[in-house]
Amino acid sequence: MNPTIHDVAKQANVSISTVSRVFNNPDSVGKEMRERVLQVIEELGYAPNPFASGLRDNRSMVIVAMIPDIRNSYYAEMLSGIEEVALSKRYNVIICNTIQNEERFLEYVKYFVKKKVDGLIFASTEITEFYKKNFDALNIPVVLASTEGRAWDLPSVRVDDVQASYDATTFLINNGHQEIGFISGPSHLLVPNVQRYEGYRKAMQDHQVPVSEQHVVYAEMTFDAGYEAMSRLYAKMPHLTAVYAASDAMAIGAMKFLHEQGLEVPRHVSVMGFDNLELSRMISPGLTTVAQNIYEIGKSAGELLFQGIENRDQDLQSVTIAHEIIVRGTVRNRRLKSDSER
Amino acid sequence: MNPTIHDVAKQANVSISTVSRVFNNPDSVGKEMRERVLQVIEELGYAPNPFASGLRDNRSMVIVAMIPDIRNSYYAEMLSGIEEVALSKRYNVIICNTIQNEERFLEYVKYFVKKKVDGLIFASTEITEFYKKNFDALNIPVVLASTEGRAWDLPSVRVDDVQASYDATTFLINNGHQEIGFISGPSHLLVPNVQRYEGYRKAMQDHQVPVSEQHVVYAEMTFDAGYEAMSRLYAKMPHLTAVYAASDAMAIGAMKFLHEQGLEVPRHVSVMGFDNLELSRMISPGLTTVAQNIYEIGKSAGELLFQGIENRDQDLQSVTIAHEIIVRGTVRNRRLKSDSER
DNA sequence: CAGCGCTCAGAAAACGTTTTCTTGCTGAGA
DNA sequence: TCTCAGCAAGAAAACGTTTTCTGAGCGCTG
């Protein structure tokens, strides 16, 4: 078995209180004693038993990351950022695939109450009163990642979706496109779809490009749904020159549909995505898209959470992460004559 | 604060021993008492404090999944399977991005000794004596996922790489290909690369197709490395009609190179991958590949681990997961005349 | 020189379980 | 009727910390 604080105390000929103090508040113990204890600790390879400390002061050194699906590389990337900062703080991360499922969520929450996790990063879905109530009951710091929290007074880390979407749309307009269709996420998922829709619409209007519900279709934010959504959009807008999809997965699904219709990207139709997933650069041509620095979102969320853990009554400030247009090969510049003649 | 076992005991007018027994060994307590206690438990929403139980019997109800990189969808998928069975056993999973880094590995291992995790699933790299020694020191059940363990007497869950690779190569041969290049993973990573190489070579030989080192290039198993490896392979084998890559990421990288060279897939060159990543079906044309049921690997590894946790001295039997050829659009059948005339 | 306060270290309580040991009671067999 | 076995429930110890309380020793001040 591992050495305990008693073993160290006996070996160093001090009391266990002294050993504990050496660990937690070294300045409060005299130099010679401290050094003797330190040496024995080293010698025996002593480390405090986390169960005992946990029992004593209800800290588990564990945080929880709640995400919809770890198989989605967006969340995997985010998790990677969270994990990085947790490791540096000597915390562990436990992951929860909520699968957008309230029952499963509850299952986990019930669990955390017992486990006394020290903090929670939530990246799953729209926050409803249901979630908010459960968070409150948990009574630990909560940080939202890539989802909205202002209405519920929860700190969040995310990109400015309105602005990012505005920039993406403007990019298409600046490349000479006017007939720009928009594949939105499902409208019932408020975040981030309202924001991305708003950014798209605002950009169109600001540049005097006509826009209406005729330009928009709604779908789940997946590859398959994007494929299917593109067929609907194409039926509504047979003359579109560009498609802007609210996620890369949808954009790539849309590209597959266009490809099957014999429409070349970007010669006949330009495509713009959102997310900058790893795979966006793997396809040919590479997908032009809006990059969220997802890793950074995870990292910031982690840092924010630890702020809250280390200083329980501090108010946490939401953070906005910068976005960036990544230009690859799926948008054609219609303003270049040579290009349009190709 | 949460109700304790004492609260329950007082409320139900029994001793705490009885309450504990109701939880852990219900049959040993009389019916009426049991029911009274059960009711109070329900009423108060009591649940045992895991620190206290952990302190008492050194069980954490936590298992660890060690993987190279959660951002790699292969491992994300595997993790998803692990997580599923852990949840059903009411265990938590903590993840460790080892990043193929021994120092980082040690950092984690040191941690687990303290945390007293109950089991470990290792999916990182080739097992060396270094790892094996650390596993032994941990003194908990260890299961290997998608890596080899026989030499070290560790149970593993994986596909039969030799057979799978044999099948993939045979598929290409049966489609009329003879000049088949092979993009292997780096030779220093023995598993699974020796096996896949062996399967390829064996299939070629069994079908009387000439094969030599001229047909093979080595690269890291990533998209970028696959791109670069394809350029080397193409230089060595300008007349190849098919490429078989030991991972989908490499295969897709290779496709990008071919595309840039003006070579169409599958018209000029056929491509076959290995893994069946999510993104393999997203590209156009869809990648023909060998499917590992990765989720199943994770799930089986989890189940095997829990066998070991629940029965410590049982010998765990390694498990082989079935593989399958997924036919999509990147392999042309050269035996069909109409096809070759297109 | 006496008394006061301050510093540093030890004693002990508390955290919430699980499980062994003990005890009291019931029922059966002699 | 007495004794012994068996069973059900309670008492108590143990797991390893952290922290508050206590007390000893010492230096400074009046």
UniProtKB/TrEMBL annotation, chains A, B:
The keyword Transcription regulation applies. Residues 3-57 form the HTH lacI-type domain. It comes from Tumebacillus permanentifrigoris. One of its GO terms (molecular function) is DNA-binding transcription factor activity. Keywords: DNA-binding, Transcription, Transcription regulation. Gene3D superfamilies: 3.40.50.2300, lambda repressor-like DNA-binding domains (1.10.260.40). InterPro entries: HTH_LacI (IPR000843), Lambda_DNA-bd_dom_sf (IPR010982), Peripla_BP/Lac1_sug-bd_dom (IPR001761), Peripla_BP_I (IPR028082). It comes from the Bacteria. This is LacI family transcriptional regulator.
